[in-house]
Design a protein that fits this description.
alpha/beta, Aldehyde Dehydrogenase, Chain A, domain 1, Aldehyde Dehydrogenase, Chain A, domain 2, 2 domains, 6-stranded mixed β-sheet, 16 helices, 22 strands, globular
């Protein structure tokens, strides 16, 4: 049996994981998982009933009592073993990911490798949950600070990175000593299930990790209200994140980490290496068909560099080969679902109505799946939808600017602040944009802002809290001060 055959067979056995038991059916109904490149049904996913959600929360609560006290070195061994298993199964998981999400295999392989790195990094970092000693004010007294796991976590992840995003939440929570109930996206369940299988095969005790599926609004509301859940972590849209944060505040003021929408500016200065800037910007914008929260999303190019940048950018977009992610020569796959495909025309039409032009693309591709042409818009104002809202698709608006102060002001004039990028050879300009851009992550002459060892998170309406890095581990810990007098 080929790797592709094995991957396809995984969709015939879609399940949920609750208290160490794999559930292939429940009373919550079913969800059809569809290949976005062909629109063929891959499999039927069981959805959780309320009773199953309660059981998952209770399992996480019961397991927390022992997992929180499991020595850090043992938690580290399990996470490291899970990372090893993900690496050993990487080719299979990548094929599963491409089948259900659509991105090219090369991108899927990179994502799975990134997920394994996250498990490895947290395996190492779990052994460094240090506290500190505070000099006491009196003799025979000791003051110290410790960090303890916050408790059972409810995690919610989207469909655009079905390996990387669940890995961040699972590994961070488990490394800190928390247990977890995670609801990945119903469009892309099989990839997350492979991660759960790796954790279980690595020796993770029953109930420490539970994986459920269901109607997003119903599942999130039910789990957030659960008295067993102590923390919420969510990756998704700003509008949904606000609703979940409000719900968490109503039910015990539960701690939240919110990684929400992005609208990253990419600023190209006259002195930049234009060819390199085009290569990076195009790769960032059209990777995963534009469905990347930290992707360069709106492009500001200084006046002298603008003609050359636009010409090369257009050539790159026109040259992209669209098709099934399984094909070796595919450079951009389909959008992940019909919702994203249906959203694209409105951004283009709005730009045209505001006097803009289509430099390339601007329509559906003629393939059967959810394909949209790589699109570049020019001459549109900053308040156009493509410049002020997250398109989450392969639409790239390009605008001209003249000065550093001007472009920083324009780049910051949106509610979002997840990532931002700039291209320049000037150290002074680089410092100005690093200091001036309102974003949680800034890449200067590089798109690499998502690393296992670095914090990942935004400001303003792009959310709060971080995943990744030591900050990501801190998000799952409570601080305790102890004063002891002998």
């Amino acid at each position: 049996m080929t790797v592709l055959d094995t991957a396809a067979a995984r969709f015939g056995e879609l399940r949920m994981l609750v208290d160490g038991e794999w559930l292939s059916r429940d009373d919550g109904g079913w969800h059809a998982v569809v290949d976005p490149a062909t629109l063929n049904t891959l499999g039927e996913l069981p959805l959780a009933s309320r009773a199953t959600l309660d059981r998952a929360a209770e399992a996480a609560h019961a397991a927390f009592k022992t997992w929180a006290r499991t020595p850090a070195i043992e938690r580290s061994r399990i996470l490291a073993r899970a990372a090893q298993l993900v690496r050993e199964r990487a080719e299979l998981i990548a094929h599963v990911l491409t089948l259900e999400q659509g991105k090219p295999l090369a991108e899927s392989r990179g994502e799975v490798a990134g997920a394994a790195e996250i498990f490895e990094w947290y395996a190492q970092e779990s052994r460094r949950l240090y506290g500190r000693v505070i000099p006491a004010r009196q003799a025979n007294t000791r003051h110290w600070v410790t960090h303890e796991p916050v408790g059972p976590v409810a995690a919610f992840t989207p469909w655009n990175f079905p390996a990387l995003t669940p890995a961040r939440k699972i590994a961070g929570a488990l490394a800190a000593g928390c247990t977890c109930v995670i609801k990945p996206a119903e469009e892309t369940p099989a990839t997350a299930l492979e991660l759960a299988q790796a954790c279980q095969d690595a020796g993770l005790p029953a109930g420490v990790l539970n994986m459920v599926f269901g109607a997003p609004a119903e599942v999130s509301a039910h789990l957030i209200r659960s008295p067993q859940i102590r923390k919420i972590t969510f990756t998704g849209s700003t509008s949904v994140g606000k609703q979940l944060a409000a719900l968490a505040a109503e039910h015990g003021a539960k701690r939240c980490t919110m990684e929400l929408g992005g609208l990253a500016p990419a600023i190209v200065f006259d002195d930049a290496d234009i060819d390199e800037a085009v290569s990076v910007c195009a790769a960032s914008r059209f990777r995963n068909a534009g469905q990347v929260c930290v992707a360069a999303s709106r492009f500001y190019v200084q006046r002298q560099a603008y003609p050359r940048f636009l010409e090369r950018f257009r050539e790159h977009a026109r040259g992209l080969k669209l098709g099934s992610g399984l094909a070796a020569d595919t450079q951009m796959g389909p959008l992940a679902n019909a919702r994203r495909l249906d959203a694209m025309p409105a951004f283009v039409e709005d730009g045209l109505q505001r006097g803009g032009r289509i430099a390339t693309g601007g329509a559906r591709h003629d393939a059967a799946g959810f394909f949209w042409q790589p699109t570049i818009l020019t001459d549109i104002p900053d308040d156009a939808r493509a410049m002020s809202e997250e398109t989450f698709g392969p639409v790239a608006p390009v605008a001209v600017f003249d000065s550093v102060d001007e472009v920083i002001g324009r780049a910051n004039n949106v509610p979002y602040g997840l990532a931002a990028y700039a291209f320049t050879r000037s150290a002074a300009t680089a410092m100005a944009v690093a200091d001036g851009l309102e974003a949680g992550m800034v890449g200067i002459n590089t798109p690499a802002v998502s690393l296992a060892e670095a914090p990942f998170g935004g400001v303003k309406e792009s959310g709060y809290g971080s995943e990744g890095g030591t900050e990501g581990l801190d998000a799952y810990l409570c601080t305790k001060f102890v004063a002891h007098r002998a």
